[in-house]
Amino acid sequence: MRYRGQTYWRRRRDRLLKARVAVRGRALDVGSGWRSFGWDAVRMDIEPAFKPDVVGDAEGPLGFRDASFDTVLVLDVLEHLRRPFRAVEEIIRVLKPGGTLYLTVPFCYPRHGVEYYRFTELALRDMLPGFALEIVPVARGRLARFARKCFPGEAIVEGYFVTAVKRSAEK
Asked: In this predicted model, what pLDDT tens digit does every residue of 124-139 receive, in sequence order?
């Protein structure tokens, strides 16, 4: 399903991407779809109609050597996968130590296309051991922000924006 609506989640996510994403070195955009933010990245998608650089399944194998990317982007993809943990393992495998993963997932957001999962902040932390994480919950409006301050971890959020830096392997 091709949906390009301007929802709060998408507008806020796009602002966070422009403000926080710093694509460095060799980059991979997993599940790129029609997306083009002007990054110099290898675009990978399962759907050939999107005309990606590489047609492939995010659940892997990705077809790239270990530690071959400095930056990996996975934007609103995991909820559409039957085996998202397998996909994350593959993404971790191709990301270099010290590399950065940018990940977004909707949470309390209308269903779009075929979806299998929604991820909480705890699930995201569990999926990314060995990473220095910054997880930004995206909540709409003053009431949601107030509720989040009063009830940390309890308030409803529309989605999460994650910046994850892969720690270097222990010697």
From this structure: 999 999 999 999 888 7
